[in-house]
Design brief:
Blueprint lengths: L4 H36 L3 H20 L5 H19 L1
Length: about 90
């Protein structure tokens, strides 16, 4: 347990931030899974919409510091290539 008041406050903040990050990461993963499900179902119009939502959530995760920008770029590229195979 933290001894100083600053350390106790920092522990409280870390707990709050960890819970918030878990929630943000979960919504990101859910949107990616939704996109992959739409691609498997061969539903191009819904898949395009799901792609836009997933990219938005990925960019949001980068701005919040949950993911590195290069990882986000790689993820968006891979999702886009899967979407292109469905459209073509």
């Amino acid at each position: 347990m933290a001894n100083s008041s600053q350390a106790r406050k920092r522990a409280r903040q870390n707990t709050k931030r960890r819970l918030h990050n878990i929630s943000q990461r979960s919504t990101l993963r859910s949107s990616i899974k939704k996109l992959l499900r739409m691609i498997e179902e061969q539903d191009a119009t819904v898949a395009r919409q799901a792609y836009r939502e997933a990219v938005s959530r990925i960019d949001s995760a980068v701005s919040k510091g949950l993911h590195h920008r290069n990882r986000a770029a790689r993820l968006k590229s891979r999702l886009n290539s899967r979407l292109r195979t469905l459209v073509n």
